Amino acid sequence: MLQYPTLHAPGTSMLRDEWLTAAAAARLLGINRVTFYDWRDRGYLKEVRTIRPSSRTLYNRADLLKLGQAKDPQ
């Protein structure tokens, strides 16, 4: 089972289910973080939300699942 990020910003309770950190996103996709960041840098996925003040970047779970269905987007 995935471990979702714990977010303490007001109004972020839904974020735990819909938004993932890079580490959790890589686990969801079954790839390592280096590959995840490579895919991100190639434009296959986007940084979609940044939580302040920690500047944590999160990725949309539904978008990741679509990408995962395509397997290696190369």
What's a quick, concise take on this entry?
With 74 residues, the chain is of the alpha+beta class.
Q: Could you outline the blueprint of secondary structure elements for this entry?
A:
Elements: H1 15-18, E1 19-20, H2 22-29, H3 33-41, E2 49-51, E3 56-60, H4 61-69
Antiparallel strand pairs: 1-3, 2-3
Structure description:
This protein is of the alpha+beta class. A 3-stranded antiparallel β-sheet has the order 1-3-2. The longest helix has 9 residues. It is globular, with a radius of gyration of 12 Å. The N terminus is likely disordered.
Low-confidence stretches: 1-8
Structural shape: globular
Strand order of the largest sheet: 1-3-2
Structural class: alpha+beta
Mean pLDDT: 76
Strand count: 3
**What distance separates the N and C termini?**
27 Å
Radius of gyration: 12 Å
Q: Helix-strand pattern, N to C?
A: HEHHEEH
Largest sheet: 3 strands, antiparallel
Q: How large is the count of helical segments?
A: 4
How much helical structure, as a percent, in the residues? 40-55%
Q: Strand content of the residues, in percent?
A: 5-15%
